[in-house]
Amino acid sequence: MSAAKKKMSPKRVAKKSASHDASRDKTEEPTHSREAVSRAIADAVAAAPTMRTHSKPTAKRAHAPAVQMTTQESAQEAVRDAPPAIEPNVTIAADEPGGANEADEPDEESENGGTRPTADVADRIRELEQRLDRMIEKGARTHDREPRSVPPPPSSRALPVDGEPTAFDTARELLSTDFYLRKWGRLGMRNRSEEVDDFGFDPIYEKKVQPIFDFLYEKYFRVALEGIENVPSEGRCLLVANHSGTLPYDGVMIKVAVKREHPAKRDVRWLAEDFIFHFPFLGSMSNRIGAVRACQENAERLLRKDALVAVFPEGVKGIGKLFKERYKLQRFGRGGFIKLCLRTGTPIVPVAVIGAEEANPMIGRIEYLSKAVGVPYIPVTPTFPLLGPLGLLPAPTKWKIVFGEKIDFDGYGAEAAEDEILVGRLAERVRATIQGMLDRGVGERRSIFFG
Amino acid sequence: MRTAPILGPTVHNYLTRYLSRKIVPTMMGFDPLLQCVHEVDAIAAFKLAIDRDVAGTFNIVGDGVLPLSTVIKLAGRIAVPIPHPLAEPLGGIAWIAQIAEAPPTFLKYLRFLCVADGQKAKTRMGFRPAYTTREALLDFTSAQRLRDVRLLQETTT
To answer: What ipTM was assigned to the predicted interfaces of this complex?
Structure first.
């Protein structure tokens, strides 16, 4: 709109009215019958700004030379002569003064002189506006045409846009490093999704590694399920499970179990301890298959999106317990998961994982070296430091995952999250439920390896 | 106001310098999630903050996240993974020798993911990013490719 800033003091208005008169007279001469009309239009156009300047303080008008004052006056007379009914009938008339006004509006404020008549300015503005419209339209069209999940746009740029690609083009394409870089990029992306969610969950990558977990689930741990129907098919829900095994496979196994056996095939997002994400490969891999770094904010965000979230309130204490303490639930933190449920109105499904404790029986732990490696402790199992990394392989125990009855907290309301005593009591209740399920499951079991 | 790394055709910051080389160092086995905001959106957000006069801390982020590996592939670069115990001293040396674009503390961003929630800016400030993270990156990339083949000259130094 910088063109519109062209000045129009009373002096300019006068000049402009004159120029308008002249141009109109010239252009609309041929049609005799319309002559009166066109003259009226021209006058009206000329008068519109003139009338406005009349209401301005006279001090401003004093700048205008006397000769031009007369032109102004005559223009005014002309508009008074013109029948007012004519204006709405003629399309140009309706259009023109509007355009002129639009152009004039900012003019009254600015005082620096311009060189162009305002009619030209208005035309120019309109032209610019049209150009802008065209540009926006074009931009929108190209924007629409480009789908979200396309590979980098350069590929379309490097190829000849129109016409048949000649041998020369092909040769140039094949000789450019860019081509190989792009191919390399596509190769790297073949197993990865174009889009990941906010926590890094990558469906294509997950599908790729699925066979490994299927093997673990089906053949290695031979997981048996109980009460999978207690997991709701939709809506937010929190799975609260015991944590066990020196290496926490239980999160993955719960995920695989729900994905495979649940009718709704829901994706479980489980909250994993921080130290997993300090390991190379392990962290990014668990991120891609759906683990989320454990913290209240992440859990709350997930639940607000109506996700199915698995938590292990025991945390590191759970996986770090010794073999002699197996199937004894540790303290449930400060009941953070209960507060979460109360705040978001989420039901809890207690989950007991039986069999994971014996997969890597820990007979001791070394804690004084662990800081350097970035783990909470270094486990000592019958095989681990002895056989090297191979010793970390879990024993093929028979697993059983029990999903308990849903516990609802609807009756309490969000403000109950502030009540520490209530939170503690509810946490203790959930803990007792899971402990009971564990005790029953372990009691029913006859063999560690065959169930 | 906390903005995610700003990307766009005319921006110069550590992220654009990082992505402007053919070979990009990464941390072996780490694939952090990156969040960017387009320069246009960032400016719009600053203007909104001035106009609306809202108090508080706001995360200014584009929609969506991209893993670093995807970012590098979209930008058409070659990632060179460096084992993370080596990366810290190497980064320090490179920084002292003025080869590196950023001090070694920047390496933390290559290792751990840092994703911010822009919900508060959306609701309280009315900030709606026009570009997603991906679009911001592609916008930067297309300008960067022109720069690579010297079709686009820098007007300012």
So the answer is: 0.81
